[in-house]
UniProtKB/TrEMBL annotation:
<dbReference type="GO" id="GO:0008168">
    <property type="term" value="F:methyltransferase activity"/>
</dbReference>
<dbReference type="Pfam" id="PF01208">
    <property type="entry name" value="URO-D"/>
</dbReference>
<keyword id="KW-0489">Methyltransferase</keyword>
<dbReference type="InterPro" id="IPR052024">
    <property type="entry name" value="Methanogen_methyltrans"/>
</dbReference>
<dbReference type="InterPro" id="IPR038071">
    <property type="entry name" value="UROD/MetE-like_sf"/>
</dbReference>
<protein>
    <submittedName>
        <fullName>Methylcobamide--CoM methyltransferase MtbA</fullName>
    </submittedName>
</protein>
<feature type="domain" description="Uroporphyrinogen decarboxylase (URO-D)">
    <location>
        <begin position="6"/>
        <end position="339"/>
    </location>
</feature>
<dbReference type="InterPro" id="IPR000257">
    <property type="entry name" value="Uroporphyrinogen_deCOase"/>
</dbReference>
<keyword id="KW-0808">Transferase</keyword>
<dbReference type="GO" id="GO:0032259">
    <property type="term" value="P:methylation"/>
</dbReference>
Length: 349
């Protein structure tokens, strides 16, 4: 390999199932940028200029291969009229859901991006990042899948009741959520995003029985993802992917974010040539790692999934927790450069 690739070139090669100069490293920082700027998490998420500045500082400090405009999943439910609850040391969560009764679904209006401040915040963040990184660094946006969004739209219990007991209303909600998802994803591409994560934890058999998923969420994904005008990677937010990997390969996704509980080598074999594998460092355990343990885990992941390309090293959830020490993140970055350079050394396999 002659010369060092840019993060965008490195990532593109991995997605083509080729071996780039080294394994790409995606560090998905959300609230972590508040630490860098010395702000509270609530204050950090009050201005897109703060989020963009945080992303750029973290990119420079830890040497990852992407930036992200994603702040927190509840920003989508804000567009539907929901509440957000902030905390001092963790991601903001959804508060009281906007759909209180299932029969409200009939009259539910799909929000427009242009009239949703929380979504406009995301678009402005993408624009600011694009102005700084251009085409050299991938900008990763995010959407919550229409199938998983109702967990925060109406609450988990109520959604389970809808899924099993009100099929007509379920499909009406899916139609509205699909429209919202496509609008929101395409707006991010128009603003400058390189790719979008389709967050669909309910696709995992950890959450939904396989036969039910195939009759519902998979149908939704196959209708939604092809309407998105750019690369989409499905993320299962820590849930296992291997039992549904063949299903996900048929949705139009180009990659899949996998769980730390997945067999990474088996996933790589099963998805070869169809889906790039993104993962699977344990983001919770990472809070307690030493730098030496971080190097061991990076080496393990690269040995399992690195050969032949088609692999991006990342955490298993899509978010670096607030409590992860900076020394561990620096050790991860150093280890991917030591053990992830192609051709991979035999000592790393």
């Amino acid at each position: 390999m002659a010369g060092e690739m840019t993060p965008a070139e490195r990532t593109a090669a991995a997605l083509r199932f080729e071996e780039p100069d080294r394994v790409p490293l995606f560090l998905f920082f959300t609230m972590y940028g508040a630490k860098e700027l010395g702000l509270s998490i609530r204050e950090y998420f009050s201005r897109p200029e703060y989020v963009a500045a945080g992303q750029l500082r973290l990119l420079k400090k830890f040497g990852g291969d992407c930036v992200t405009s994603f702040c927190y999943a509840a920003s989508e439910v804000e567009a539907w009229g929901g509440e957000v609850i902030f905390r001092d040391d963790g991601p903001p969560n959804a508060g009281r859901p906007p759909i209180r009764e299932a029969d409200e679904i009939e009259a539910l209006e799909v929000p427009t991006v242009e009239e949703s401040p929380s979504l406009l915040f995301g678009l402005r963040t993408i624009e600011l990042l694009k102005r700084e990184v251009g085409d050299d660094v991938p900008i990763i946006g995010s959407v919550v899948s229409p199938f998983s969004l109702p967990v925060i739209q109406m609450g988990f219990d109520a959604y389970i009741d809808l899924l099993y007991g009100e099929p007509d209303l379920f499909w009406k909600l899916m139609a509205k959520n699909e429209e919202f998802c496509v609008r929101w994803a395409n707006a991010q591409f128009e603003a400058g995003a390189t790719a979008v994560t389709y967050a669909d934890p309910l696709a995992s058999t950890d959450m939904t029985p396989l036969d039910l998923y195939r009759r519902t969420g998979l149908v939704v994904a196959k209708r939604t993802i092809p309407r998105i005008r750019g690369d989409v990677a499905t993320g299962l937010a820590s849930a296992r992917a291997l039992p549904v990997i063949d299903d996900l390969a048929g949705t139009g996704s180009v990659g899949v974010g996998v769980s730390t509980f997945d067999d990474l080598a088996a996933l790589k074999r099963q998805s070869a040539g169809r889906l790039a594998v993104i993962g699977n460092l344990n983001a919770i355990e990472m809070c307690r790692w030493t730098p030496a343990r971080a190097e061991t885990e990076v080496k393990r992941a690269i040995a399992a999934a690195g050969p032949g390309g088609g692999f991006i090293l990342s955490d298993n959830h899509g978010e670096i927790p607030w409590q992860v020490p900076g020394s561990v993140l620096l050790a991860i970055s150093a280890a991917v450069r030591k053990w992830g350079a192609y051709p991979l050394e035999e000592a790393s396999l």
